[in-house]
Specification:
The chain is an alpha+beta fold. It folds into two domains: 2-60 and 213-335, FAD/NAD(P)-binding domain, CATH 3.50.50.60; 66-206, Beta Barrel (Elongation Factor Tu (Ef-tu), domain 3), CATH 2.40.30. The chain is built from nine helices and twelve strands. Bound molecules: flavin-adenine dinucleotide.
């Protein structure tokens, strides 16, 4: 693509960079940034696991969709934990009829075929929701959609089934559809998940997916700026750290370079403020629950909400983007960072 060509051209044009196109099979001893991405080769993966310990590196993601709180219909969903425990959940109640139609839709939904390198072995604990639906009509009702311990305050009764939304961030903007990891195509996810009671107008901040993806448990094993906790001159960057996407990975790499340089000269690392996308993404990486950690791409649920509530999604996003731009440049100036406007050749 144009973006990746431009990135490669920029690196090749930089006289201070020597490019060696070969496999790195162990972690370098000196100051280093490791950004080997979702298909990090085996020997290097082993070396990374050795330094970060068990549970530091995963090889497959299992991502459930996330919705923005603002679009969830408060007249339908109810907040409650099972048996009144832990109320960080919203529950979308389903009648028997709604549940049967939903299971049918999941079974008929079109999933990604995937490539050979992307072949994912499914683990019983995190099967795709559509695979669970195909196993039997009651599988979901006794699995992630079980209604046990939940009473709908509007009816005073236990729903036939529920979709639980778990709060993903401190501000309560991002809500994760628990157990809804999926390989359904995005159009199918939109069609089927918007039929869940209470989610017809929901804004999906992230769609579900299951990939071959080597990624580190950032909140569980890295420092707030992405270095090893036992070796601060070893910094990880890009998709390997649990970000997803071209710009996310490139931005995380640039920040890793800045911060490794600062750390070598005894300065504190820098992270942009959480009103900017990069700052919000790093806050997520730092603060996410290590026991549920899954990769994340840029989305507006990551940044601090505006002080006033704006109903129009378009207007809200424009204001968020404007604020992010302003705050980013203020942060750069305060941090003594300079914008190099030299254009890369494509
Ligand atoms: C089919 C597909 C389509 C995509 N489309 C989009 C899109 O439209 N928009 C978007 O934003 N994102 C998209 N992405 C995601 C995007 O490609 C990644 O998020 C991004 O490229 C990650 O960048 P990275 O530099 O962290 O890793 P990578 O781009 O994977 O780069 C890491 C490099 O390190 C190399 N490497 C691995 N192990 C070693 C080793 N031991 N020694 C030396 N080198 C090693 C790898 O071969 C690779 O070249 C897509 C991904 C795929 C697979």
């Amino acid at each position: 693509t144009l973006f990746t060509k431009a990135m490669t051209a920029a690196v090749e044009a930089e006289s201070a960079i020597e490019i060696l196109r070969e496999e790195c099979t162990s972690l370098p001893n000196g100051p280093s940034i490791i950004a080997t991405g979702p298909l990090t080769s085996n020997l290097l993966s082993e070396a990374i696991q050795q330094i970060l310990g068990d549970g530091g590196l995963s090889f497959f993601d299992a991502i459930a969709p996330i919705v923005h709180r603002d679009g969830v219909d408060e007249n339908v969903v109810f907040a409650a934990g099972r048996f009144d425990e832990d109320s960080d959940y919203l529950n979308c109640p389903m009648s028997e009829q709604e549940y049967l139609a939903f299971v049918e839709a999941l079974r008929d939904g079109e999933a990604h075929e995937g490539h050979d390198w992307d072949a994912v072995p499914y683990f019983e604990g995190c099967l795709p929701i559509e695979v669970m639906a195909s196993r039997g009509v009651d599988t979901l009702r006794f699995g992630p959609m079980k209604p046990i311990g939940l009473t709908d305050p509007r009816t005073g009764e236990r729903p036939w089934a529920v979709v639980q939304l778990r709060r993903e961030d401190r501000a309560g903007q991002m809500w994760n559809l628990v157990g809804f990891q999926t390989r359904l195509q995005i159009g199918e996810q939109s069609r089927i998940f918007k039929s869940i009671p209470g989610l017809s107008d929901a804004e999906f901040l992230r769609w579900g997916s299951i990939h071959r993806n080597s990624y580190l448990n950032f909140p569980g094993c890295l420092s707030p700026f992405g270095s090893s906790r036992v070796r601060t001159n070893l910094v990880f960057a890009g998709q390997l750290t649990g970000v997803e996407g071209y710009t996310e990975s490139a931005a995380s790499g640039i920040l890793a370079g800045i911060n490794l340089g600062r750390s070598l000269s005894g300065e504190e690392p820098l992270i942009p403020p959480p009103t900017t996308m990069l700052g919000g993404l790093f806050r997520y990486l730092r603060n996410a629950d290590p026991s549920h950690f899954q990769p994340m791409n840029s989305n507006w649920g990551l940044v601090d909400p505006l002080s006033q509530r704006i109903r129009s999604k378009r207007e809200r996003r424009e204001l968020l983007a404007q604020r992010a731009n302003e705050d980013f440049f203020v942060w750069m100036e305060r941090s003594g960072l300079r914008l190099d406007t030299t254009e890369a050749r494509v």
